[in-house]
Amino acid sequence: MRNYAEETEKRVQFIRQAVADAHADGILFGNSGGKDSALVGILCKMACENTEGIILPCSSKRNFTIDKDDGMEVAEQFGIKTRVIDLTAQKELAIETMSQVATLSQAAIGNLAPRLRMLTLYAIGASENRLVAGTGNASEYHMGYFTKWGDGAYDLNPIADLTATEVFEFLRYLKAPQAVITKAPSAGLFEGQTDEEDMGVTYAAIDKYITTGEANEHDKAIIDRYHARSAHKRRDPLRYHD
């Protein structure tokens, strides 16, 4: 069991130092109503009073109901100022415009929402001199379960080393809303979608494998496959050197 009191203080100091080094006036994060964004928002608010969450629903019905409600509950409990920006029209326009010159795959369409969200966060962040906080955990990073230049983009990430299991434990320590802790993790990319069903493996199995190296043959095969084919997401863009 991690010492979450000590962990909290260290992460708060990390965030404060990042803000100071960047001469920033505050922090923005995408408040998805999920476990990771909840923990990031809570830690950032502890470190920087001028922290705001942006709830960014986009097409999926879940974004406008359970995710929005849970995001607002976290914001209200921890005093995090919140804005809501509906990106549905922007996604529809992007699909309409791009479809005139290319046939978009379902994967490409699915990645539009995370990229539109990050575009929005950086536009507001640049306008208000705020850093954009990332919300990805170590389990998602290992699996490559994030969108390149979407939710994989950020200025700082205070939970990047935590597995999904540790994120849940941290939220319990901080007494975050139960709704965020108990609901099935989902990117909300389409109706009924959950992370674990998408990947075909549970976060518990992923976390056990990346922390102990132990997994059954079925889970190991899935995790190794996801990790191998997402290697490009975890490295810097290739640059030519003579």
Please describe what this structure looks like.
The chain is α/β, with parallel strands linked by helices and 242 residues long. The protein has twelve helices and four strands. The protein has a four-stranded parallel β-sheet with strand order 3-2-1-4, with helices on both faces. Helix 1 crosses helix 2 (35-47), helix 2 packs parallel to helix 4 (66-78) and helix 5 crosses helix 6. The longest helix has 23 residues, at 106-128. The mean pLDDT is 95.
Number of helices: 12
* SSE run: HEHEHHEHHEHHHHHH
Distance between the termini: 48 Å
- State which percent range the strand residues make up: 5-15%
Strand-pairing-aware structural class: alpha/beta
Write out the strand line-up for the largest beta sheet, numbering strands in chain order. Answer: 3-2-1-4
Molecular shape: globular
In this structure, how is the largest beta sheet organized?
Answer: 4 strands, parallel
Rounded mean pLDDT is 95
Radius of gyration: 18 Å
Helix content: 40-55%
Which spans have pLDDT < 50 for at least 5 consecutive residues?
A: none
Structure summary, number of beta strands: 4
